TrEMBL record:
Coiled-coil annotated spans: none
Gene: paaA
Name the UniProt record assigns to this protein: 1,2-phenylacetyl-CoA epoxidase subunit PaaA
Species name: Streptomyces polyrhachis
Superkingdom classification of source: Bacteria
UniProt feature, compositional bias: Basic and acidic residues: 310-333
NCBIfam families: PA_CoA_Oxy1 (TIGR02156)
InterPro entries, A to Z: Aromatic_CoA_ox/epox, Ferritin-like, Ferritin-like_SF, PaaA, PaaA_PaaC
UniProt-listed SUPFAM superfamilies: Ferritin-like (SSF47240)
Length: 333
């Protein structure tokens, strides 16, 4: 698609947009796009970015208490990666004509969501493992298809994010494996963490398809490639054999292989808990948002310094340009 579309009139532009989506071409920031497509992307990418930076909190909770230097270095790298993901995603959102300040303000005032999963506490060291294995595992399943999202900047941002998420998932899996095969107390701690994180991880994929307001349209636009339930099923099918290798059980007595479907059946999800967390009533909603607002306030001087530096730099470049121009003029005279 080219920037010419905007000049061809709305109907032609819409046709060109539809054709590009149908042909699996990428929509780029300067291309014409329907307002609702733009709004959906801003909503999803912003929610995704917010999740990345709020997601730093439950894990950084354990940074000062990691049991070894190696574990601490790994966890620090992971938490820093999440900050990086937030930055790519805010940048991707900015290509749609919104500013980072505006998005952060919406997060801080509760007008934009972040993932439900980060409203649960990390009570023990084993939670760091469970978050890596289950939460990052769910994130990969959800995000790999977004590498083929119709909107170019979002799709490209996801490529690196997914590579880093794979490392995160592996560190969680390895951590849980070590605990599970350790002392009986360590094994019990790993099992307890999995028991608490399993159901919230299942909810990360969003409401069931028949209650998902945006899925049908987002799939038609190829922002989403699979429905919430499809991805949730994939998650269960991947986790069951991994849990066996870990020597841990998933807290769902209804999980069993269904020969006919070639997939696992699983038990009913308590959706009232999900909606309650979204309404702000999860165990940590208030704590997460307060911490985020405080971090934003604490970082005000960094933003001011960066803006002042950038202004100074712009002034200097402008001065140099004038000086060069004058010299050029004198040389010609
Ligand atoms: N939490 O119509 P639906 C990470 C909302 S970062 C909260 O199905 P959609 C990580 C939804 O927004 C993980 N809200 O929506 C980071 C909508 O409400 P609004 C984040 C949820 O957008 C650090 C309503 O429910 N990943 O993994 O088609 C450390 C109806 O839902 C949730 C992403 O953001 C939820 N779980 O599908 C470690 C990935 N689910 O907006 C790990 C990108 C649904 O109308 N996002 N809602 O008020 C997506 O793929 C999609 O947005 C979703 C939801 C699948 C999440």
């Amino acid at each position: 698609m080219t920037a010419m579309i905007g000049e061809a009139g709305t109907r032609d532009a819409q046709e060109a947009f539809d054709a590009a989506v149908a042909a699996d071409e990428r929509i780029e920031p300067r291309d014409w796009m329907p307002d609702a497509y733009r709004a959906t992307l801003v909503r999803q990418i912003a929610q995704h970015a917010h999740s990345e930076i709020i997601g730093m909190q439950p894990e950084s909770n354990w940074l000062t208490r990691a049991p070894s230097l190696r574990r601490k270095a790994i966890l620090m790298a992971k938490v820093q990666d999440e900050a990086g993901h937030g930055l790519y995603l805010y940048s991707a959102a900015e290509t749609l004509g919104v500013s980072r300040d505006e998005l952060l303000d919406k997060l801080h005032t509760g007008r934009q969501k972040y993932s439900s999963i980060f409203n649960y506490p990390t009570l023990t060291w084993a939670d760091v493992g469970a978050v890596g294995w289950l939460v990052d595992g769910a994130a990969i399943i959800n995000q790999v298809p977004i590498c083929r999202c119709s909107y170019g900047p979002y799709a490209r941002a996801m490529v690196r994010v997914c590579k880093e998420e794979s490392f995160h998932q592996r560190q969680g899996y390895e951590l849980l494996h070590t605990l599970s095969k350790g002392t009986p107390e360590q094994h019990a701690m790993a099992q307890d963490a999995v028991d608490r994180w399993w159901w919230p991880s299942m909810m990360m994929f969003g409401p069931p398809d028949d209650e998902s307001t945006h899925s049908a349209q987002s799939m038609a636009w190829k922002i989403k490639r699979h429905s919430n339930d499809e991805l949730r099923q994939r998650f269960v099918d991947i986790c069951v054999p991994q849990a066996e290798i870990l020597g841990l059980t998933l807290p769902d007595p209804d999980i069993r292989w269904n020969e006919e479907r070639g997939q696992h059946d699983f038990g009913a999800i308590d959706w009232s808990e999900f909606w309650d967390v979204l309404r702000g009533n999860g165990p940590c909603n208030e704590e997460r948002l307060n911490r985020r607002r405080q971090a934003h306030e604490d970082g005000a001087w960094v933003r001011e310094a960066a803006a002042a530096y950038s202004e100074k730099h712009d002034r200097r470049t402008e001065r140099d340009r004038h000086a060069e121009h004058d010299q050029h003029g004198k040389a010609q005279a």
